[in-house]
Structure formats: C-alpha cells, structure tokens
C-alpha cells in the first residue's frame, strides 16, 4: 500500500500535520455544534441526548470490524477512509438542519472515528519504531492543543456569520485531508496482523468474560468497573443538556461588542481547555512514585463528591457565572481524578489482563451512557431541564461511598508495571 517515494512525505511530519488538522477541524465543528442543534435545528432535550446515544452506539458496534481493516489490510487505508467518513458526517449535519440528518451524521462520523481510532498510533509506531514513538506522541499533544485553540477561536468568528458554516468548512477540510493523505502518506513498514492475533467479535466476548473473572477476584477492579458504569449513566445527559440550559435560562453579557452565543461558546470552550490544562499541570507536580504509593480512595471520594456537587450546583444555579463556576469546578475535579484512578486500577492488574480490564472499564462507561441518556432526556422533556440535570447529579451519589468502602488489600495491590501506568482516556466524541 506504499506510495511512490517521490510523492511520499516524512511520516513524523505527516503524523503531526494530520493530527493538527484533525484537532483544528474538530474544534471548528464541536465548539458550536450544541448551539447549532438548539438554535437552528430546534432539537428537544430528548433529541439532543439521542444524538449522543446514536454516536456512542455507532462507535461501539463498529470498533471491532474497523480495527480488522487496520490490522488486515492497511493502517493508511483505514485512516484515509476514516477521515473521509468523518468529513461526510460533518458536511451532512451542517448542510441538512434536520433531526434525522443529524442522526445519520453521527453514524457516519462515528464509524469514521473508529476507522482512525488506534490506526494512527499503530501506523506511526510501525513507521518510526517503538524507540522513537514516545517522543513523537509528546510533541503531537502540543500540536493538538495549539490547533484546538486556533480552531475554537476560528469557530467563534465564523459562527457570527452562520452557525453551520464552521461545520461545513470542517467537513470539506476533512475530505481534503483524506485526499491529501492518499497522495502523500506513505506506509513502508506495515505487516498484516497474523490471523490468530486479529481481534474478532468472538475474541471480544472472550475478553469480556476474562475481564469479569478478574473483576470478581479483586474488589478495587470490581468497584472501578461499577463506578465507570454509574458515571456513564449520568454523563451522557449532562454532556448534551448543559448547553441547552445555558442557552435557555441565561442571557450573555456583551463581549467584544456582541452577546452572540457563537462568541460566548467559543470563549467558554477556551476557558475549559485552559482549566483542564492547568489541572493536568498540577497533577504532574505530584511524582509518579507518590501517586503509586497511595491507596487513594479518600482523595477520589473527595473529588467525586466535588463532581457531584458541580453537576447539582450547575442544575440549580440561577446566575450564569455561578452555573459556569460549578461546571468548571466539577470538570477540574474530574481532570485531577482521572490519572490517579487510572494508576490505582493499573496497580491492581497484572500484565496479562491489563488491557482486557481497562477495555472493560471503558465499555462499561459507554454502556452506561447508552442506557442512561435517553431516559434522562425524556425526563427533561416531560418535566424540566433542571429536574433532569439534578437527577443526573444524584445518580453520581453512590460513587463517593463506593470509593470510601474500599480498604487497602496487600494481597492484590501491587506496584504498577513499567509498560503501563495509566488507562487510555476515552476519545472525545
């Protein structure tokens, strides 16, 4: 599948380029997508949640078959197909402001995302080697952050002209990115995965059974799987409905001579990005040795309690800045908790079962989102947004208690092994 050398670009520069473009274009789409759904398409709270549920289901169902394409045929081909489908999804939802079109767009770009998920990292690892790829990943994070900030600012400016305009330009840009990769992206070190090692639905079932066995044996693992499920039950509704509350309940003050929601949502996105970055820098101040020496149930219970208070505080707030402060405090608490919880989970896993159980934790969160989102969306339609958001927060109530009931168990808590110290964060969708 490699291209002629005279047309092929350096793989590291190609990796930085397409990840930077992806971050810019995704920020261009997602910064104002919720505003577009409410203002231009007129979606109800239930429809807003069903949009997210459709995306989650598409990603869940197609993760395995699209992974087979990357392993069997070509990482490069999988990435190109993925960006083409993502672009088509972005274009569809920008050009057709109707609920059915929005749902179809979620399916398109959700499937496209599964084509790219994992294939990009596997491709660059094949091309540059395992000894160099760590430095590439660190640099890629910096490129992505810079591109995301630029995309957010651009979305705010373009949104003043038309809310769907950023999505249309983003979709067209994704299609052009796929074409560019077809011309310049090389693949010289790809070797198809042996049949016995390919992921299949049968293997996924075996993986799930094995993960259940591990969870039954270790209380920390069992509890973290349950916490992930509960978190998913709450998060889908909140992630989709917070913007509806902001738009329906509050008026924005004038900023830069305008109170247009396009400008304000761009500003809110930027603030959220910088707060998350600051929180991650604070976490990095704590050494890995110190984190790994903790049985951090007390710390995680406190952070979970802050997240719960943030959701309910946001739901009940009658003032714009109080609502935003509550939401941001909860977001920062979650950002701090994630690496601590991930390290704790890894300390309770051995190398053979680590990837299996981490995948199971992520799947339990996705299942929670699919199961919990639609009922809360329907509740918002029958009662009020405030009621649905309060219930979304109350669902989180058992989590601090589940953390506190865990006690150190020296028979199962073992030092983290060097090959993995944190779980993979879920991809933003």
Automatic annotation (TrEMBL):
Transmembrane segments: 16-37, 49-73, 80-109, 167-185, 224-242, 262-286, 298-322
Subcellular location: Cell membrane
Domain Major facilitator superfamily (MFS) profile: 12-411
Keywords of this entry: Membrane, Transmembrane, Transmembrane helix
Pfam families noted in UniProt: MFS_1 (PF07690)
Highest taxon of source: Bacteria
Topological category with respect to the lipid bilayer: Multi-pass membrane protein
PANTHER family: PERMEASE, MAJOR FACILITATOR SUPERFAMILY-RELATED (PTHR23530:SF1), TRANSPORT PROTEIN-RELATED (PTHR23530)
Protein name: DHA3 family tetracycline resistance protein-like MFS transporter
